[in-house]
Amino acid sequence: MNISKQLARNIVKNLKDVLKQEINFIDTEGIIIASTDEERIRTLHEGAKIVLDTKKEVFISEDGQFKGTKRGINAPVYFEQHIIGIIGLTGGKEVKKYAEI
Predict the structure, then answer these.
(1) Burial of 74: CB neighbours in 10 Å, binned 0-12, 13-18, 19+
(2) Which of 4, 46, 47, 83 has its CA 20 to 30 A from that of 57?
(3) Using alpha carbons only, what angle is made at residue 96 by residues 31 and 69, rounded to the nearest 5 degrees?
(4) In angstroms, how far apart are the furthest CA atoms of the chain?
(5) Cα 100 from chain centre
């Protein structure tokens, strides 16, 4: 199942309103499809590819650690036991607590 870009935008907007963090929603190809940073939309996020391969959250410790990444946490989004995307939250260690949301 693929998530629509419109639903991804709604998720990003609603999470931003609550968490006050910069947020990306990345599809299962590793492409950012929704973001609070418009310039990042339609760009590759290699950290998301690692999440897809390992099925585990990945913390990026510094900007540019992988192509298209900024410091923060990236976590898989599951629906019916399948990853349908990845949520990325930009920031330091303080964003790790949000990965379970």
Answers:
(1) buried
(2) 4
(3) 30
(4) 32
(5) 12
pTM of the model: 0.92
The whole-number pLDDT of residue 8 equals: 96
Which letter does DSSP use for residue 56 in this model? S
Q: What is the pLDDT of residues 30-59, one digit of tens each?
A: 999 999 999 999 999 999 999 999 999 999
* Gyration radius (Cα) of the chain, Å: 12
**What was the pLDDT predicted at 2?**
82
Between CA 69 and CA 79 the distance in angstroms is 24
**12 vs 81: CA distance, rounded Å:** 21
User: Measuring CA to CA, how many Å separate 16 from each of 60, 82, 98?
Assistant: 20, 24, 12
